[in-house]
Amino acid sequence: MDGNYQSYINRVVQMTAPINYEQQIKNIQSSPKFSGQKPVNFPGYTIITPPHGESNHNQEFYKKLAHTQRQLVEGLGADFFVALPADSFHITLADLIWDDIYLNAVKDKPNFDQLLISKIENIFKDYKTVYKESKPFEFDVLGISIFPRAIAVCLAPTEKFYESIIKLRQLIYQDEEIVDLGIEQNYEFAAHVTLGYFGDVSDDFDYHKVQSVVTEINDQWLENSPSNFIVEQFELRKFTDMTNFIRQDDWAMMKLY
């Protein structure tokens, strides 16, 4: 499903181009992951960078993200745009399983969690034999994108690092035991940090206001943003909702330094 590097750049640049905001805004809808300002139960597993609250890296980047997030809340309203806790900011490298699919998998296999944790550990070991040059991934900031249920800042790795990420995803999604656990690839890779989700979206919300606010903030972001984001580590995490990502010390982790 993941294309080559040039197709990635073309796709994500288009996602962040203000000229496309008008069309993106027409597709927005309330996220089921929040009820008012509170996250709803939404359990599952994912492969992500350490959340901002647990990382000592990219502090300037995260500081700018938090400022941008506050601007969005002020411009769009806290009911319309529900901000995530800044401590939860992260980049997802591979979605695994979530919500009802995860809950049903646990019902079918009471030891599902242990099986998944063990299998991801083995995949990380295999990845280390392929990715022998241990060097942090570098991402360039492209701008703000409006997703159907969220607003995020999108990024692009160099071609070399993109290929390394796609290799990891292939090892996961093409593994027979992973497939047998009910895990499959649902999305093309798009490196992003989610800033918040759409909450109370009425049928008559002001399209032009949303477009104006996001465009102005995007222009400010690109003028003043840190030049890049460094991924020095990624790991298996379990989430209970979209604000809480947890892990045990012995779960799979890949250090790139």
From TrEMBL:
It comes from the Bacteria. It comes from Cyanobacterium stanieri LEGE 03274. Pfam families: 2H-phosphodiest (PF08975). This is DUF1868 domain-containing protein. Residues 38-99 form the DUF1868 domain. Signal peptide: none annotated.
